[in-house]
Write a structure and sequence with these properties.
By secondary structure, the protein is mainly alpha-helical. The chain has 15 helices and no strands. It has helices at about 5-25, 30-40, 50-70, 75-80, 85-105, 110-135, 145-170, 175-185, 190-200, 200-215, 220-230, 245-260, 265-290, 295, 300-325. The protein is globular and about 60 Å long.
Length: about 325
């Protein structure tokens, strides 16, 4: 049976995801990073044999399903409750960070798409954004290595930010609303935003979480931009142009609208969010199996400096906007 050929690889990817979530829960560390490292330790399974088709399927189709289900986290009611100024700040910071990242990447001699990938991961939602953009961008020889390097980078930087950024909040004397906007608008991954926000106060944690979800909503227009680039370049290597709207972007938007209209109950929303996390962790484990660790050690210092610079710039930019406009 055709579907049966995917089972061994899918099972291996799911086992990696289970192990990664268990380790992340025990050590309070990024689950994506554990999934990636565990997958890389099992990369011999992806070269050939029974597991290869399923690993490829997990790295491609399961990934896109996970991105689509991110739409269950977003509602227009959440955005409206926050007010206009934080939303405006988020949109400006995302656009400026990604645009500057692409320009700097080109100046440093990288493919400009690496700037879009790393800048999108930094500006939007960390590893999830990196995986979503990678799924929409055209294929090239360095795409998988760039994706995995980006996931490692944003996961590590997000963990550091969770510890350091609450100190910045206190040092600048930001109020609860400003603190939530800063943490939710700058830390890469949702889990680290939650950890940093609620370590200060429940009010800061609530605001930071909603701001972070609005950043996740920015994933849709950025995916569409990536899809237009892919379409302009002739597709993913097959010579055929893909649809202007990838199915997972349409599903993401549809679920967000459905949730805004009250069509997704809280239990369904919780289920969709949890399933999305499982899909993304499974996919990053599969991606880890597809690459050799020694390949990542050859990237050099420049990509590290690029991602560090993106992170520092985003934090400084959002902080300056908050201080200039005062409390939202």
């Amino acid at each position: 049976m055709l579907a049966g050929r995917y089972v061994p690889g899918l099972l291996v990817s799911v086992v990696v995801a289970i192990a990664a979530r268990s380790l992340a829960s025990h050590y309070q560390a990024p689950v994506m990073l554990f999934a990636l490292l565990l997958g890389m330790a099992m990369n011999f399974l992806s070269s050939e044999g029974a597991c290869k088709p399923g690993i490829e399927f997990a790295a491609r189709s399961v990934l896109r399903l996970g991105v689509a289900l991110l739409g269950t986290r977003i509602t227009l009611e959440q955005i409206a409750a926050l007010g206009w100024h934080p939303v405006q700040l988020i949109v400006i910071s995302v656009v400026v960070t990604i645009g500057l990242s692409m320009l700097v990447a080109r100046a440093m001699g990288f493919n400009v798409l690496f700037g879009l990938l790393s800048g999108g991961a930094t500006a939007i939602c960390g590893a999830s954004a990196a995986l979503a953009l990678a799924a929409a961008l055209p294929s090239h020889g360095e795409k998988e290595r760039a994706t995995l390097f980006t996931v490692i980078g944003v996961s590590a930087l997000s963990t550091v930010a969770m510890i350091v950024y609450p100190m910045i909040v206190r040092a600048f004397g930001l109020d609860a609303m400003q603190s939530g906007v800063f943490l939710g608008g700058t830390i890469h991954d949702v889990a680290q935003v939650v950890g940093a926000g609620y370590s200060i106060s429940p009010e800061v944690g609530d605001t930071a979480t909603v701001v972070k979800l609005i950043r996740v909503a920015m994933l849709l227009p950025v995916i569409l931009a990536a899809a237009m680039i892919t379409r302009a370049r002739g597709g993913h290597g097959s010579g055929q142009r893909p649809p202007l709207l990838p199915w997972f972007a349409v599903a993401f938007f549809g679920l967000a609208v459905l949730g805004s209209l009250g069509g997704i109950t809280p239990p369904l929303q919780k289920f969709g969010t949890e399933l999305s996390t499982w899909c993304l962790v499974t996919a990053i484990g599969a991606l880890g199996m597809k690459i050799q660790l020694k390949e990542l050690t050859t990237v050099g210092i420049k990509p590290v400096l690029l991602m560090l610079g993106e992170t520092v710039f985003l934090a400084a930019f959002v902080l300056c906007l908050l201080l200039l406009q005062g409390s939202p």
